[in-house]
Design brief:
Elements (H helix, E strand, L loop, with lengths): L5 E12 L6 E12 L3 E5 L6 H7 L9 E9 L2 E2 L5 H5 L6 E5 L2 H4 L6 H12 L5 H11 L16 H13 L5 E5 L7 H17 L3 E6 L11 E6 L2 E7 H6 L4 H8 L10
Parallel strand pairs: 3-8, 3-9, 6-7, 7-8
Antiparallel strand pairs: 1-2, 1-4, 4-5, 9-10
């Protein structure tokens, strides 16, 4: 079921690699949606197809990927029908990504201020870029002095905040967060998740959270899709899935969440 308020609707999407007997069905007929101002989680273990699904939203999947069938509709536009030139207007500007390793997204030889400014220059015209860099840093709770800092001078949490600032530089409508807290300490993970929840409210972001960890879903996402071997095996509101999981795979993922104390049945 779709809603007029949906910003993203994926229907019956299949992505394969190879052909014949060697064919791998990385994504096999999945459907999901994200509403405006909503956070939705796509949950599954490594190799389940969730990251390739996220990359496919702007056709960033590897060149060997074949979009066999399906539809990716973003703000009423069919993504799979767009040319490369048209896609470049959407990537970063309307759909932005953050990943689990912030150092991969940042160039070690340039200051973070310069790199955020470059992101602004690429997608926005006619604004005071240096003032905008400072505004973005404050938006992710970083001090102005870090404008002149290099990536190696910053902690993992600070780096991830800088990557989020770069993603926000173009005022995207949808933020795809692919395992954004995996490489961080537990306390820093909580800070980043709180920041994403705050930005959803203050900036009006829609967020697609890609994760293997049910532990970070409860406080952030309103709805959950559980993915296994390229197929969505369960979906529902976060409360429904957490309190009354139907699929054995969902139960196994939930049981894998580390806990300080044993959970009573």
């Amino acid at each position: 079921m779709t809603d007029m308020n949906d910003i993203l609707v994926v229907r019956d999407l299949s992505i394969h690699f190879g052909q014949g007997d060697e064919r791998v069905k990385a994504v096999d007929g999945i459907s999901f949606r994200v509403g405006r101002g909503e956070t939705v989680a796509l949950v599954g273990e490594s190799g389940s197809g969730k990251s390739i699904s996220a990359a496919s939203l702007t056709k960033l999947a590897p060149r060997a990927a074949k979009y066999v069938k399906g539809s990716i509709c973003f703000k009423g536009q069919e993504i799979l029908a767009l040319s490369e030139r048209e896609l470049r207007k959407i990537r970063g500007r309307q759909i932005a990504y953050i990943f689990q390793e912030p150092m991969v997204s940042l160039n070690p030889v340039f200051t973070v201020g310069w790199q955020i400014e470059e992101a602004i220059k690429l997608h926005q015209k006619g604004i005071h870029r240096k003032a905008e860099v400072r505004r973005l840093l404050r938006l992710v709770h970083l001090p102005d002095r870090l404008v002149s800092a290099y990536p190696h001078q910053m902690s993992g949490g600070q780096l991830q905040r800088c990557v989020i600032a770069m993603a926000l530089a173009c005022s995207p409508d949808l933020l795809v967060a692919d395992e954004p807290t995996t490489a961080l300490d537990v306390t820093v993970q909580r800070e980043i998740l709180n920041l994403l929840a705050e930005l959803r409210e203050t900036v009006g972001l829609s967020i697609l959270m890609i994760t293997h960890n049910f532990g970070i879903v409860a406080d952030l996402a309103s709805r959950v899709y559980v993915m296994k071997k390229g197929i969505i095996v369960e979906e529902g509101t976060t409360k429904q899935v957490l309190y009354n999981p139907q699929h054995n795979y969902t139960k196994q993922l939930m049981a894998a969440v580390p806990r300080l104390h044993p959970v009573k049945k």
